[in-house]
Please model this.
Amino acid sequence: MFEQMEISGLADLHFAADPATGLRAIIAIHSTALGPAIGGCRFLHYASDDAAITDAIRLAKGMSYKAALAGLPHGGGKAVIMRPHGHFDRTALMASFGRFIDNLDGRYITAMDSGSQVEDMDAIATRTQWVSCTSRTGNPSPTTALGVFEGICAAVRYRLGRHALDGVRVALQGLGHVGFELARLLHQAGAMLWVCDLDPKRSASAVQAFGARQVATDEIYRIPVDVFSPCGLGAILNDDSIAQLQCSIVAGSANNQLAEERHGAMLHQRGILYAPDYLINAGGLIFVALNHARAPARDITEKVRGIGTELLALFKQADTLDQPASQLANARAQAIIERDGHRNGNPEPHRRLAGGHQA
Model:
């Protein structure tokens, strides 16, 4: 565990257990150098405690980089709640999790993520103010999808020289809340879609709604397309999948798409333009952070639409330096955290572990 923290640069790792509600939760705080850590709460079944801890640690680092590149006054954090088996009171469990968050005194702000929903955030909000995505602010998924759409448009413009998506071929992996909304935006723009999802019903819905072509989950990498858009699980860009890709661009909403950092270099070596996940999918974080700060909706939309412009600048720099876009994005994010953290008089804290909290 400590080795994982050291490798990722994680600052804090917190645990809570509440037998009365079944709560078993982990909060990973990567950085508070730029401000309170912010990041969603996953509510999923995990194969083991170690798997849940690893997920939280990996995702927290990505949130720090995402906030830094988006120019938000936040560090990165992530929460994982291990979904109980059998019957449980969901509202009571989420309220207990809210008490856990409140004990961190504002170091971490939570929001929706895989498996959690608006009603969960409402329950959390009965115990803490450090929560977004409540009924007042709503679901960030459409805003995430908008940012990814803008990023795909930018990548297509840069790599293919096309200023519209009409006829552009997109293989979309994953049709959850963000993936399905992205499919809608792409369809409206005239793109041709190949889709897959672990739930065949979602794929069938996309076929009916958007005229998409359904393919098997293990075939999606091999479809000859312009854009491969991973919108499901993380760590899906690895030695095996990258070798199969028949696309010019990888641009999607999934977090932690690269199984290892070296896979960004592999994409670069293959001549595949990669839009770093924590830059292209930052729309949801922008929505969460600015809504928590009560910014006007028009300001949020304008900032999300700027994701395409940020990616264009990154693509140009990567070509000029002949370096992977992922490597440059990592370096830029880390430089922002270090520079602005010291400027604000808030350098990175020592790493710490807090466990055994009874919610």
Notes: The first strand starts at residue 12 and ends at 18. The longest helix spans residues 49-69. Residues 159 and 273 are 7 Å apart (CA to CA).
